[in-house]
Amino acid sequence: MREILADLVAEQQGLDQLLQRAPDRDWRKPTRARGWSVQDTISHLAWSEDYSLAALRGETQLLAEVTGAGIDGFNQRGVVAGKGKRPQEVIEWWRFSRAAVVDSLSRLKASGRVPWVSGDVSARTFATFRLMETWAHGLDIRTALDRQDEDTPRIRHVAWLGWATLPHSFRQAGEPYPAPIRLELTGPGYARWVFGPETDQVIRGPAGEWCRLAVRRIDAAEAANLSASGETAAAALRLVRAFP
């Protein structure tokens, strides 16, 4: 757990530091995520951390609320909760909430189980979901603030999550997942990351593109540097979705 939690905190702090340098007027800028502003996005992250803490505490009635409201409807609650707040209030809310989640996760073994939207997941995977969401929305905010995206080795966690959730992605699309695929990715600093067994179903290319595809910030047509060998691998480029 130590590695994933250290990377999660680093990802959150990186976004926090960017926002500290942004004047209040920039918090009103629109992002590419569901038409939310920068402030709406941080409100959503803070709300998500509050919800995550409830899940860690076993308050499973909130899972039923997600199912009833739908993911989009539930996510919008965080945006509504942040309306009328000043940027400083919103970022303090996010800081407090995310710290509570990290503290709770630090008390669990990596294999400990946490109830989540698509079923129980390990504590390590749960922490990876938190990093993925922070990174994905950080992309939206950096675009809104006209800041360059610079991938770090931390995206390895997002790359793994995109691969690990492929069976769920195929089920959500109502398509069979007949065989596991293999990812052969090039990360920052020419790192080589490989996930999956030896198989003829292989996706190759830059990790940054795979990760952006997995969080739906680009589509398969825009992932021009990713190549797929095999029908299942080709379908994965169309269906990958590293979130519920």
Commentary on this structure:
- This protein has 244 residues and is α+β, with helices and mostly antiparallel strands.
- It is built from 9 helices and 6 strands; from the N terminus they run H-H-H-H-E-E-H-H-H-E-E-E-H-E-H.
- 56% of the residues lie in helices and 9% in strands.
- The longest helix is centred in the first third of the chain and has 22 residues.
- The two termini are 22 Å apart.
- A hairpin with a 5-residue loop joins strand 3 and strand 4.
- The chain folds into 2 domains: 143 residues, dinb family like domain (Four Helix Bundle (Hemerythrin (Met), subunit A)); 85 residues, Nonspecific Lipid-transfer Protein, Chain A (2-Layer Sandwich).
- Strands 4-3-5-6 form a 4-stranded mixed beta sheet.
- The radius of gyration is 18 Å and the shape is globular.
Count up the domains.
Answer: 2
DSSP summary, beta strand count: 6
So how many helices? 9
CATH homologous superfamily caption of the largest domain: dinb family like domain
Strand-residue fraction? 5-15%
> What summary fits the major beta sheet?
4 strands, mixed
| Unreliable stretches covering 5 or more consecutive residues | none
Shape: globular
* Span between termini: 22 Å
What level of helicity do the residues show?
55-70%
| The CATH topology of the largest domain | Four Helix Bundle (Hemerythrin (Met), subunit A)
Strand neighbour order, sheet with most strands? 4-3-5-6
Q: Over the alpha carbons, how many angstroms does the gyration radius reach? A: 18 Å
